[in-house]
Amino acid sequence: MLLTKFKEGVLEVLFPKVCTVCGLKLSTNENFVCTVCLKDKFEEAYRGGKQASSDILLPEGISLQHALWNFDKGGHLQELLHQLKYNRLIGVGEDVGRQLGKSLLGNPLFVNGIKNKKALLLPVPLHKKKRRMRGYNQAFHIAKGVAEVTNLHIVRQETVIRTKNTSTQTGFSLEKRRKNISGAFQVQNPEAIEDAVCIVIDDVFTTGATTFELASKLKKAGCKEIMIATVAQA
Ligand SMILES: [Zn+2]
């Protein structure tokens, strides 16, 4: 016990925990990103209406498309999400997830939309091969942060699965993205989401190809309504 404490103390002096974004030392109540960065380093996405993206038509059944921050190409947010996705910094997901949860609670469309309803968080599933390779699903860790703040439950990971292992969609046209993702998801346990408001959680919202495909499957499986909540808006 004493030795563990001593080791921790030494590690703390040798390798102080620093903020992933600004590199300054973190205080004990901070995890990966410091409070100052969470407040000031990112630009809030527009949230005056039912969608954060101005140029995309939301398909029927999707009542809200909420994003926390605007994607700053090449900037802090891109770097942060990269750390989460490829460098195993899963705690970053929980940090930004908590922030996303707070911003959802500040959106009346969200608060009124889930009132007196069964509402569930559904991280966009990863194909099992990809999950095995990466070791985790980054969307799940974002959802964990959202769950902590909103007190909503996360749908069990086997309820909806990804049956198609798609390659990266970056650089694809919208049509190609849609074709690529078509039929990629399968609801294995419709009872779990029946009549629920499903809040689909992902890291970035770009064209909506992935989340819209998932939403249409959820709707067919009996979901009452779908909301999309992402950390970034591209
Ligand atoms: Zn910082």
Automatic annotation (TrEMBL):
Entries under InterPro entries matching the protein: ComF/GntX_DNA_util-trans (IPR051910), PRTase-like (IPR029057), PRTase_dom (IPR000836)
Protein name: ComF family protein
Native species: Gracilimonas sediminicola
Domain Phosphoribosyltransferase: 152-232
Protein family according to the UniProt entry: Belongs to the ComF/GntX family.
Lineage: Bacteria, Pseudomonadati, Balneolota, Balneolia, Balneolales
